[in-house]
Amino acid sequence: MDDKNKNNLIKMSLEGVRIEVPSQKPIILLKEEGGNRYLPIWIGAFEASAIAMEISDIKTPRPMTHDLMVNILEILDCKIKKIEITKIKDNTFYAIIRMENNNEEELEIDSRPSDAIALAVRCNCEIYAEEKVIKSAGLEIQSIEEEVDKFKDFLDNVYPEDFKKEE
Amino acid sequence: MDDKNKNNLIKMSLEGVRIEVPSQKPIILLKEEGGNRYLPIWIGAFEASAIAMEISDIKTPRPMTHDLMVNILEILDCKIKKIEITKIKDNTFYAIIRMENNNEEELEIDSRPSDAIALAVRCNCEIYAEEKVIKSAGLEIQSIEEEVDKFKDFLDNVYPEDFKKEE
Questions:
Q1: Are B62 and A101 inside 8 Å of each other by CB?
Q2: Is residue B163 part of a domain?
Q3: b/e for B129-158, b at 16 or more Cβ within 10 A?
Q4: What value does the mean pLDDT take over residues B36-41?
Q5: Which of these, A103, A107, B40, B134, has the minimum number of CB atoms within 10 Å of its CB?
Q6: Complex prediction ipTM
Q7: Whole-angstrom distance, CA of residue A2 vs CA of residue B48
């Protein structure tokens, strides 16, 4: 029995970020863990860079904006528990950052997916996406080994307008 | 009697941000309150945009990165009290964000000046700079009315290499 309001969160892994697609618009690619569905989200260049630098283990001499945010959370004894890509509305992706404060109270903050993922990779926390978001904006690839080149070709030839976008 | 280690904070106002100087590098301009000294700091385009959008009262449908940071501080009941431009080392400006947590404890966080100012304009908190920083990297203008055009010309023809820079 379908229940439109029921949460159905799918655990995702961050496959990567492409900074320079032909359109010059960067893309985050999330992949369903243990599955064959991908969720591409177009994001801003700055946020893409913030994600790419962290997953490439590039250190900067001074704290970048998302590093500062993580440092602030640490000094306030607040932990990010997980992030969730919750919905798409008017072609915009929405996310929630779930945190725990120093009194072990659970808090949630509305965020763009890009900021949420830039924080998630720094805090090594889990990334989820709502089933309905994946159904609406995901791509299914049956065999990764066979399809990977096809998928790369697709990424090289796709334009932001072809997708739901973040902002 | 000079004391090199003594803090001597000067209250500054944010004169503005120029996004597109000929060099394509944006600049923050701080001005000594009640004085005639200016402190220019070269910053990144993203951070400049974050400051300019706030002081121009431009609202975005989704929270931008520094808006998210302010939202997180609010939900954690943490207040930014003031920010301070504290030093220059190896041509890099350093800043501190001074905060108060929900137990009224004072906390400080190391930050780039650009992030600190992007937060300060959102929290309406005061901006200070160390006297030694202004002495080292400031510009003195005797009469603002007479000098303002000259100063604009200067800004139009100066290059980032001519200044201490943030990163």
A1: no
A2: no
A3: bbbebbeebbbebeeeeeeeeebeeeeeeb
A4: 92
A5: A103
A6: 0.83
A7: 47
Q: CB of B89 within 8 Å of any CB in chain A?
A: no
Identify the H or E element spanning A46: helix A45-55
* pLDDT at B138 exceeding the cut of 50: yes
**Spatial CB neighbours of B41, under 8 Å, sequence gap ≥ 6:** B27, B28, B30, B85, B93, B113, B114, B137, B164, B165, B166
What is the CATH number for A37?
A: 3.10.690.10
> Which residue numbers in chain A have pLDDT < 50?
1-5, 165, 167
The confidence score (pLDDT) of residue A47 equals 92
Single out the residue of B71, B79, B86 nearest to residue B105, CA to CA.
Answer: B79
CB–CB contacts below 8 A, A to B: 77
Q: pTM score, two decimals? A: 0.83
pLDDT of residue A24: 72
The reported pLDDT for the residue numbered B143 is: 62
Q: How many domains does chain B have?
A: 1
Beta strands at B79-89 and B126-130: parallel, antiparallel or unpaired: parallel
* Strand pairing category for A126-130 and A79-89: parallel
- Retrieve residue B107's tokens: 């906390």
**Which residues in A lie closer than 8 A to residue B109 (C-beta atoms)?**
68, 71-72, 75
Domain annotation covers residue A164: no
In which domain, by residue range, is A73 found? 9-148
- What pLDDT is recorded for position B30? 96
A67 lies in a domain? Answer: yes
Locus of tokens 């950052």: A97
* Residue B51 maps to a domain: yes
A167 → chain B, closest CA residue: B62
pLDDT at residue A19, rounded to an integer: 62
Helices vs strands, H then E, count in chain A: 5, 8
